[in-house]
Amino acid sequence: MQTQNRILDDLAKVASSAMGAAAGMRGEVEARIREQFERIITQMDIVPREEFDAMKAVAVKAREEGEDLAQKVTSLEARLAHLEGGVKTATKKVSSKKTD
Q1: Whether 41 and 66 share a structural domain
Q2: HSE value, Cβ hemisphere, 13 Å, CA-based, for 69
Q3: Residue 85 domain boundaries
Q4: Could you tell me which residues come within 8 angstroms of residue 47 by beta carbon, excluding any fewer than 6 positions away?
């Protein structure tokens, strides 16, 4: 009986150390994979999130300003057309008075 207990204890110790070694290998493999990903990302020259968000905000602001400018141009064109229309009407009235 004592012999069987000893064999089981030895097997438990071997299994325990094998599990510890497997956990250590897992940690080492994860570290190596992380290093490889970091190296690949560095080589790809990927933009950091903060920089992307800043440029996105700049682009949104530029788009809004462009839309505002387009509206102002449209408004100014309408005013100019109205003023030119008024000038043409006034010159027609002056021209018709001269012929009378």
Answers
A1: no
A2: 6
A3: 47-100
A4: 55
Predicted confidence band at 99 (pLDDT cuts at 50, 70, 90)? low
Pairwise CA distance, residues 44 & 46, whole Å: 6
Q: How many domains does the chain have?
A: 2
Q: Tell me which of 46, 62, 80 is where a domain ends.
A: 46
Structure token pair of residue 76: 């100014």
The structure tokens listed for 89 are: 């009407």
H or E element at residue 36? helix 2-44
- Residue 91 CA: distances (Å) to CA of 4, 87, 95, 97: 121, 6, 6, 10
Total-model pTM: 0.45
pLDDT in tens, 26-68: 888 999 999 999 888 888 878 889 999 999 999 999 999 999 9
